[in-house]
Design brief:
Blueprint lengths: L4 E3 L11 E6 L6 H17 L2 E7 L9 H11 L3 E5 L3 H4 L3 H12 L1 E7 L12 H10 L3 E5 L3 E2 L2 E2 L2 H9 L3 H8 L4 E5 L6 H4 L5 E3 L11 E10 L12 E7 L10 E5 L10 E11 L7 H25 L3 H11 L9 H18 L7 H24 L1 H10 L5
Parallel strand pairs: 1-4, 2-3, 2-5, 3-4, 5-6
Antiparallel strand pairs: 7-8, 9-14, 10-13, 11-12, 11-14, 12-13
């Protein structure tokens, strides 16, 4: 089956095939969750099984909304998503009885869970419970090891910890995608519009987790047919404010979308956080706010220009690989890396002629120059002829 069926109750399905089941809170569908889900899909295909994901709904401090998590799981290719909203009766089910229900309801013959999986009344069940159960039942099991990033276990709680510190990069690495917040644009007091910086206002429910208060560089995707045409970008560069507002009480997120004048009220938007810029400051007056936002907008423009400089488009990269690589797939040789770095360094050097105060990009440039120097020294010591040819072709000083 190619489609995913969502069932929002723990009840019996009349399945013609046996199933492989995976279970979890699945809030955020980070790299660890993805390992479980992808393994289930893979084994289902290999063994002619149905893949079932039991999603235990989270009601407090949610990283993502339930519907977002469901969409992430659907994208991986799971056949059935069973949403469990825990009730008092459900908490009374023993661990062994829970496995009995999975077998009866979903024709389970295979279960895949994480190392720390706990289940049943008072969290009495664990991996050993599954192992013991499998000895007396026709059940295979797989215990997936944790995923790690930078020495830390990939988990929803660690992603929240990163976001609470303003470390968007670390959170995105654990998620394997940009972290985003999705909701409907509501009316505020329109202070931003009166000072020339209109914002899309989101009143995020208290049940949702929110990252560190402050100002971010971000992107906005508009989920509305009114703005889905080939003449508009899919993602709009934006200046994002997160935190409680004295001006707009209860407001938790505002996005000032650069070079955009459309009406977004009652439209759903998704705000992707890219980088934390600064902490919130106390606003003394409207003039103070205007001055602050003007400076933030300028820095946002510089950030996105730098972002474009740092990422060479595919055509340019292909040309460099073709000219300097040993074959069409060679992206890792010293010669190709030096040529790519030289291209980026050239872009940034031109950028500084008009943006002399962009110190963030300047630090990036210095790192690139040091990296190129190291690669050139390596090439000089290992392949002198290639080194001489390369610096001549790139017009570099020896």
């Amino acid at each position: 089956m190619d489609t995913t069926i969502i069932i929002k109750e723990f009840s019996k399905l009349n399945l013609d095939k046996k199933s492989i089941v995976t279970i979890g809170k699945f809030d955020g569908i980070h790299k660890g969750h993805q390992k479980l889900l992808k393994y289930a899909v893979k084994k289902a295909h290999e063994n002619d099984l149905v893949s079932v994901a039991i999603l235990c709904a989270v009601n407090k401090s949610k990283l993502y909304k339930l519907e977002d998590n469901i969409e992430f799981i659907k994208d991986i290719g799971i056949n059935y998503i069973i949403v469990i909203d825990f009730s008092t009766e459900f908490y009374k089910i023993t661990a062994t009885n829970f496995l009995d229900f999975l077998t009866e309801y979903y024709n389970m013959c295979y279960i895949v869970v994480g190392e720390d999986f706990k289940f049943g009344r008072n969290r009495e069940g664990d991996i050993n419970t599954i192992i013991d159960y499998s000895k007396n039942h026709d059940l295979k099991y797989k215990v997936m090891s944790f995923a790690f990033y930078s020495g830390l276990r990939v988990s929803t709680s660690n992603i929240k910890k990163y976001l609470s510190q303003g470390n968007v990069y670390g959170a995105c690495k654990m998620l394997s995608r940009e972290y985003s917040i999705r909701d409907t644009v509501r009316h505020g007091k329109e202070i931003g519009r009166t000072i020339g910086y209109p914002t899309a206002n989101l009143y995020i429910p208290c049940s949702m987790f929110m990252p560190k208060d402050g100002v971010y560089y971000g992107l906005v995707r508009i989920h509305s047919v009114d703005f889905q045409n080939e003449n508009l970008p899919k993602l709009f560069p934006s200046l994002v404010f997160i935190g409680s507002s004295v001006i707009n009480e209860g407001l938790r997120l505002e996005a000032h979308i650069l070079n955009f004048n459309g009406d977004l009220y009652d439209k759903e938007i998704e705000v992707f956080l890219l980088e934390y810029k600064r902490e919130n400051v106390k606003i003394e007056s409207v003039e103070h706010l205007k001055k602050l936002v003007k400076e933030d907008e300028l820095n946002t423009i510089i950030y996105f220009k730098r972002r474009n400089y740092m990422s060479i488009n595919r055509d340019a990269k292909s040309t460099i690989v073709k000219d300097f690589g040993r074959n069409e797939k060679d992206t890792g040789s010293a010669e190709v890396q030096v040529a790519l770095l030289t291209n980026r360094i050239s872009y940034l050097t031109g950028h500084f002629k008009t943006h002399t105060k962009d110190n963030h990009s300047r630090r990036g440039l210095l790192k690139m120059v040091a990296r190129r120097r190291k690669l050139l020294n390596y090439l000089k010591n290992t392949n002198l002829e290639s080194y001489k040819s390369l610096i001549q072709r790139l017009n570099l000083r020896k």
